[in-house]
Specification:
Blueprint (H helix, E strand, L loop, with lengths): L3 H6 L7 E4 L3 E5 L9 E5 L11 H21 L4 E6 L9 E6 L18 H15 L9
Antiparallel strand pairs: 1-2, 2-3, 3-5, 4-5
Helix pairs in contact: 2-3
Length: 141
Protein backbone atom coordinates (compact mmCIF):
# COMPACT_ATOMS: atom_id res chain seq x y z
CA UNK A 1 0.00 0.00 0.00
CA UNK A 2 1.30 3.45 -0.89
CA UNK A 3 2.20 5.89 1.86
CA UNK A 4 0.12 9.03 2.28
CA UNK A 5 3.10 10.96 0.86
CA UNK A 6 3.20 8.80 -2.27
CA UNK A 7 -0.51 9.47 -2.70
CA UNK A 8 0.12 13.23 -2.40
CA UNK A 9 3.04 13.04 -4.84
CA UNK A 10 0.87 11.11 -7.33
CA UNK A 11 -1.97 13.64 -7.04
CA UNK A 12 -4.38 11.21 -5.34
CA UNK A 13 -4.52 13.52 -2.30
CA UNK A 14 -4.18 17.32 -2.32
CA UNK A 15 -0.90 19.00 -1.46
CA UNK A 16 0.47 22.53 -1.42
CA UNK A 17 3.68 21.93 -3.37
CA UNK A 18 6.49 24.46 -3.27
CA UNK A 19 9.15 22.40 -5.11
CA UNK A 20 9.29 19.30 -7.31
CA UNK A 21 11.89 17.51 -9.40
CA UNK A 22 12.40 13.88 -10.49
CA UNK A 23 13.83 12.81 -7.11
CA UNK A 24 12.35 15.10 -4.46
CA UNK A 25 9.20 17.05 -3.66
CA UNK A 26 8.47 19.69 -1.03
CA UNK A 27 5.00 20.53 0.22
CA UNK A 28 3.40 22.14 3.25
CA UNK A 29 2.50 19.84 6.12
CA UNK A 30 -1.14 19.79 7.18
CA UNK A 31 -0.10 20.00 10.87
CA UNK A 32 2.48 22.80 10.98
CA UNK A 33 4.55 23.98 13.91
CA UNK A 34 4.23 27.40 12.25
CA UNK A 35 2.85 28.55 8.92
CA UNK A 36 5.53 27.82 6.33
CA UNK A 37 6.36 24.34 7.72
CA UNK A 38 7.45 22.24 4.74
CA UNK A 39 8.08 18.53 4.31
CA UNK A 40 10.91 17.54 1.97
CA UNK A 41 10.15 14.03 0.66
CA UNK A 42 11.88 11.74 -1.84
CA UNK A 43 9.66 10.54 -4.67
CA UNK A 44 11.03 7.05 -4.02
CA UNK A 45 9.06 5.54 -1.14
CA UNK A 46 11.71 4.69 1.45
CA UNK A 47 10.99 4.35 5.17
CA UNK A 48 14.39 5.17 6.72
CA UNK A 49 16.79 7.94 5.72
CA UNK A 50 19.68 5.54 6.26
CA UNK A 51 18.38 3.42 3.38
CA UNK A 52 18.42 6.19 0.76
CA UNK A 53 20.97 6.17 -2.03
CA UNK A 54 23.68 8.84 -1.69
CA UNK A 55 22.23 10.58 -4.77
CA UNK A 56 18.72 10.87 -3.34
CA UNK A 57 20.05 11.79 0.12
CA UNK A 58 22.15 14.55 -1.43
CA UNK A 59 19.25 15.94 -3.46
CA UNK A 60 16.91 15.74 -0.46
CA UNK A 61 19.30 17.85 1.59
CA UNK A 62 20.06 20.30 -1.21
CA UNK A 63 16.34 20.96 -1.56
CA UNK A 64 15.96 21.20 2.24
CA UNK A 65 18.73 23.80 2.34
CA UNK A 66 17.12 25.85 -0.45
CA UNK A 67 13.69 25.60 1.18
CA UNK A 68 15.28 26.54 4.51
CA UNK A 69 16.67 29.75 3.02
CA UNK A 70 13.26 30.53 1.54
CA UNK A 71 11.51 29.81 4.86
CA UNK A 72 13.81 32.21 6.70
CA UNK A 73 13.23 34.95 4.14
CA UNK A 74 9.49 34.45 3.67
CA UNK A 75 8.70 34.38 7.39
CA UNK A 76 11.44 36.67 8.71
CA UNK A 77 12.71 33.85 10.92
CA UNK A 78 16.13 33.82 12.55
CA UNK A 79 16.54 30.12 11.67
CA UNK A 80 15.08 27.33 9.59
CA UNK A 81 14.39 24.28 11.73
CA UNK A 82 15.37 20.86 10.35
CA UNK A 83 14.08 17.63 11.83
CA UNK A 84 13.97 14.03 10.65
CA UNK A 85 11.43 12.26 12.87
CA UNK A 86 9.98 9.52 10.71
CA UNK A 87 7.54 7.81 13.05
CA UNK A 88 4.23 9.17 11.79
CA UNK A 89 4.52 8.17 8.10
CA UNK A 90 6.77 5.30 6.89
CA UNK A 91 8.23 7.45 4.11
CA UNK A 92 11.35 9.50 4.93
CA UNK A 93 10.69 13.20 5.22
CA UNK A 94 12.56 16.21 6.51
CA UNK A 95 10.63 18.89 8.37
CA UNK A 96 11.82 22.43 7.54
CA UNK A 97 10.08 25.30 9.32
CA UNK A 98 10.59 28.92 10.35
CA UNK A 99 11.78 29.20 13.95
CA UNK A 100 13.18 31.72 16.37
CA UNK A 101 13.67 29.55 19.45
CA UNK A 102 14.43 25.99 20.47
CA UNK A 103 11.04 25.58 22.18
CA UNK A 104 9.44 25.59 18.71
CA UNK A 105 11.01 22.17 18.00
CA UNK A 106 8.09 20.50 19.76
CA UNK A 107 5.61 18.47 17.71
CA UNK A 108 3.14 18.46 20.60
CA UNK A 109 2.66 22.17 19.82
CA UNK A 110 1.78 21.60 16.15
CA UNK A 111 -1.51 22.95 14.86
CA UNK A 112 -4.12 20.30 14.14
CA UNK A 113 -5.34 20.15 10.56
CA UNK A 114 -8.70 21.68 11.55
CA UNK A 115 -6.93 24.55 13.38
CA UNK A 116 -5.05 25.86 10.37
CA UNK A 117 -6.46 28.69 8.28
CA UNK A 118 -6.60 27.54 4.63
CA UNK A 119 -6.02 31.10 3.40
CA UNK A 120 -2.88 31.40 5.53
CA UNK A 121 -1.69 27.99 4.32
CA UNK A 122 -2.19 29.09 0.70
CA UNK A 123 -0.40 32.37 1.42
CA UNK A 124 2.53 30.51 2.99
CA UNK A 125 2.85 28.29 -0.10
CA UNK A 126 2.65 31.32 -2.40
CA UNK A 127 5.38 33.15 -0.46
CA UNK A 128 7.70 30.17 -0.68
CA UNK A 129 7.00 29.57 -4.38
CA UNK A 130 7.77 33.20 -5.14
CA UNK A 131 11.18 32.94 -3.47
CA UNK A 132 11.94 29.50 -4.89
CA UNK A 133 10.66 30.63 -8.33
CA UNK A 134 8.38 27.62 -8.77
CA UNK A 135 4.88 27.27 -10.15
CA UNK A 136 1.74 26.10 -8.33
CA UNK A 137 2.83 22.46 -8.77
CA UNK A 138 6.33 23.15 -7.46
CA UNK A 139 8.09 22.93 -10.82
CA UNK A 140 10.94 25.41 -11.35
CA UNK A 141 9.97 28.19 -13.74
Amino acid sequence: MSSVFTRIINGELPGRFVYRDDLVVAFLTIEPLRYGHVLIVPVEETDRWTDLSPTVWGQLNEVAQNVGRAVREAFDASRAGYIIAGFDVPHIHIHVFPTDRMSEYDFSRAMAMDETDPALMDEAADRLRAILDTDENGHPR
